[in-house]
């Protein structure tokens, strides 16, 4: 079976200026070093730049009406403008090493590199520590183990991550992701790698491949 891959470049940004938690090819940008990824949510799509986090499993974006309680995002979600938005009314809260976010869980289509993924669980935040949304990050894309989400809601439910949902919806045929980094030559924000959902891009591989399970 051929791999279904979605690759997205990411941007690197200086982590010292940000405070947060630790195949579809998606560009990544790194900021000592945090990594930002562009996605869109809803129908029609609303754009967001999210901080990629492998240490948590909850994805969240700020809601449009939260004002000064949502820090400094460049983009906020307007649920009423999306025909595919569905609130689950399940409360959400997460505390990072430095920072906090709360709100409620919802489902909507998340589009990554022109690939729509319907019915993705994420949180709509109406309060977060402003430091979480500095330097271009609107929210967080959590792709850690699903089980971590049970600590982010009062019912201790395990909420599937974007990666799990991509696999369940047959967008990718393996519930894995891989990350490729280029050498860092400057502290300025820059595209310096990509995350690949669904497998590994052979062009980036030298030697054996090791998969770390959830």
Automatic annotation (TrEMBL):
Its EC number is 3.4.23.21. The keyword Transmembrane does not apply. Transmembrane segments: none annotated. It catalyses: Hydrolysis of proteins with broad specificity similar to that of pepsin A, preferring hydrophobic residues at P1 and P1'. Clots milk and activates trypsinogen. Does not cleave 4-Gln-|-His-5, but does cleave 10-His-|-Leu-11 and 12-Val-|-Glu-13 in B chain of insulin. Pfam families: Asp (PF00026). It comes from the Eukaryota. This is rhizopuspepsin. It comes from Rhizopus delemar (strain RA 99-880 / ATCC MYA-4621 / FGSC 9543 / NRRL 43880) (Mucormycosis agent). The lineage of its organism: Eukaryota, Fungi, Fungi incertae sedis, Mucoromycota, Mucoromycotina.
């Amino acid at each position: 079976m051929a791999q279904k891959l979605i690759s997205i470049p990411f941007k690197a940004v200086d982590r010292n200026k940000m405070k947060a938690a630790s195949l579809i090819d998606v560009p990544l940008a790194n900021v000592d070093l945090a990594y930002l990824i562009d996605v869109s949510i809803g129908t029609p799509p609303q754009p967001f730049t999210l901080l990629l986090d492998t240490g948590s499993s909850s994805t969240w974006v700020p809601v449009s009406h939260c004002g000064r309680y949502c820090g400094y995002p460049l983009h906020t979600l307007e649920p009423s403008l999306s025909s595919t938005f569905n609130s689950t009314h399940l409360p959400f809260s997460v505390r990072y090493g430095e920072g906090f976010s709360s709100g409620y869980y919802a489902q909507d289509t998340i589009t990554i590199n022109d690939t729509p993924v319907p019915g993705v669980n994420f949180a709509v935040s109406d309060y977060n520590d402003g430091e979480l949304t500095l330097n271009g990050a609107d929210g967080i894309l959590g792709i850690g183990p699903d089980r971590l989400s049970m600590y982010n809601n009062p019912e201790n439910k395990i909420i599937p991550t974007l990666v799990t949902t991509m696999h369940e919806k047959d967008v990718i045929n393996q519930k894995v992701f891989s990350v490729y980094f280029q050498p860092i030559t400057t502290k300025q924000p820059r595209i310096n790698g990509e995350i690949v959902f669904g497998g590994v891009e052979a062009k980036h591989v030298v030697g054996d491949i090791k998969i770390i399970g959830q």
